[in-house]
Design brief:
By secondary structure, this protein is of the alpha+beta class. It has helices spanning 6-23, 49-60, and strands at 41-43, 71-72, 88-92, 105-109, 114-117, 125-128. A 6-stranded mixed β-sheet has the order 1-6-5-4-3-2, with helices on one face.
Length: 130
Amino acid sequence: MIRVGLGSLLSSATLRLALALCLIPVSSACLPQGQSDSIPGIAVAELPAEARETIALIRKGGPFPHRRDAVVFGNFEKRLPAKARGHYREYTVRTPGAKDRGARRIVAGRGGELYYTDDHYNSFRRIKEP
């Protein structure tokens, strides 16, 4: 007979539930009110030159000019598709004339997807690459 403590049962049940939830497709009905599972797109050619430079650095693996580049993006605003913590990383898009990092960012997902925001995460557009 195997003895399992209540704490182990709870953590095991919690783990099974978490795994099961990850396997269920997310529909727009499951998203928070006002959030859509479709994000508007933008072609690379439509992005500012500085954003295209940032994409090139991301694809190359750096080096990145800002200390906070490549840090985990938490998606706390829930404007990007829900993914496990650590799926997204954020990168600064230089803003000419700005004395700080500015509001422009590219958020990259582990699957290669890229998102652009020019209003500090209030809205995103999925970057469409050829």
